[in-house]
Amino acid sequence: MTIMLRRLLLAMFVAAAASPAVAQEDLPIGGISTLSGGATDWGVATQRGIQLAIDEINEAGGLKIGGKIYKPRLIMYDDQYSGQGGATAATRLVNADKVKFIVGPLATAAILGMLPITTPSKVLALTSGFSPKVLSPDRPYNYRMALTTKEFAPPMVAWLKKTFPAAKKVAIIGPTDATGQQVVQILTEAYKAGGFDVAFVEKFERGTADFAPLLTRMMVQGVDILDLDSNVPADSGLLMKQARQLGFTGQIVQLGGPSIEENVAIAGVHAENFISLDFFDPTTDAGQAFLAAYRKKYTGTMSPWAPLVYNATKIIFEAMRRADSLEVDAVKAQFTKMEDYATLFGPVKWGGKEAYGIDHQLMINFLIKQVKNGKAEIVARVSAN
């Protein structure tokens, strides 16, 4: 072998060793949720859920699309549980970060603040929000990742009626914000349709510390069930604790959203027998795998929103893979073709046209849980379909 040939082969070897097999492209994913104030638990859950889905993709080598390998990266902003916060976060993601896919927010006010920014920019978003206003035909790029009170309240009220036949009067105490007002109305209609007397309805400002006057007025009405509406854990846990301390012995429930473990962390022993809903079933193979990944990376209480957000993020990634494209309309078109895709909560199925005018509501089954000896136990399984 000549000296020239040896040098040429050595140069080729060094060049090959120095170059990666496939260059990885950056794929920014936007996240918006509440990272300050009373709903911080929900924001942390959103951030963790998205990050776990991203970690899973990157640990597997990235996302192969159009002959390139993409590495997703989370860009997260605080919506401060407000409409202005949602608008500000969306503006930064769309205009500064050039994001085309967003997961969150969870809060109605923040979503309604975000949508005027994301809709004309054709940014695909998987949000939550319990207001019917979140979904509509004129917001074609927004999808809802979780069931709302409109979907789960009627079957839960029916279960309460069957389980507690002696209960007649219901009290609903909720926040004064957009979410609270919408949920109070939906719950009132559901309880009345289910044969209950809604004897007490009152709203309060989020962050209230002393509920004694309000709860005293409620107890005078002789209510059998107290529904904590859509209150954030910081408020609902305190409401529950103070109600028990004042001597309320009726059943306490929360049909306005899932936050069982967070409520238990605040109310402590006063949360015993508390009933609410949950979407995450840790007894399934998929549930156990998610829980193991979560516990490996994070400590402390796991909000039920973490697996919901993880699930939504995974749906976006799978739609990208199937479309073999990052074009928003191409990815969006795959959403309705994914009934064969097994998610954390079963096959992907969209509904909601009758209620919202558009099939952008992810239909998933849910669980009714009750706190027994300080732990939430499954007492019923309910199909949303």
Q: Could you characterize the architecture of this molecule?
A:
The chain has 2 domains: 190 residues, Rossmann fold (3-Layer(aba) Sandwich); 144 residues, Response regulator (Rossmann fold). It is 43% helix and 22% strand. It has 13 helices and 17 strands. It has a 7-stranded mixed β-sheet with strand order 8-7-9-10-11-16-17. Strands 2-3-1-4-5-6 form a 6-stranded mixed β-sheet, sandwiched between helices. Strands 12-13 form a two-stranded antiparallel ribbon.
Mean pLDDT: 92
Radius of gyration: 23 Å
- Through-space gap between termini: 73 Å
CATH structural fold name of the largest domain: Rossmann fold
CATH superfamily of the largest domain: Response regulator
CATH architecture of the largest domain: 3-Layer(aba) Sandwich
Task: Summarize the helix and strand pattern as letters.
Answer: HEHEEHEHEEHEHEHEHEHEHHHEEEHEEE
Question: In this structure, how is the largest beta sheet organized?
Answer: 7 strands, mixed
What top-tier CATH class of the largest domain fits best? Alpha Beta
| Count of helix runs | 13
Short description:
The protein has 385 residues and is an alpha/beta fold.
Strand and helix layout:
Blueprint: H1 3-18, E1 24-33, H2 40-59, E2 63-65, E3 68-78, H3 83-96, E4 101-103, H4 108-118, E5 124-127, E6 142-144, H5 149-163, E7 169-175, H6 178-193, E8 197-204, H7 212-220, E9 225-227, H8 233-245, E10 251-254, H9 260-267, E11 275-278, H10 285-297, H11 305-323, H12 328-334, E12 342-343, E13 346-347, E14 350-351, H13 353-356, E15 361-362, E16 366-372, E17 375-382
Parallel strand pairs: 1-3, 1-4, 4-5, 5-6, 7-8, 7-9, 9-10, 10-11
Antiparallel strand pairs: 2-3, 11-16, 12-13, 14-15, 16-17
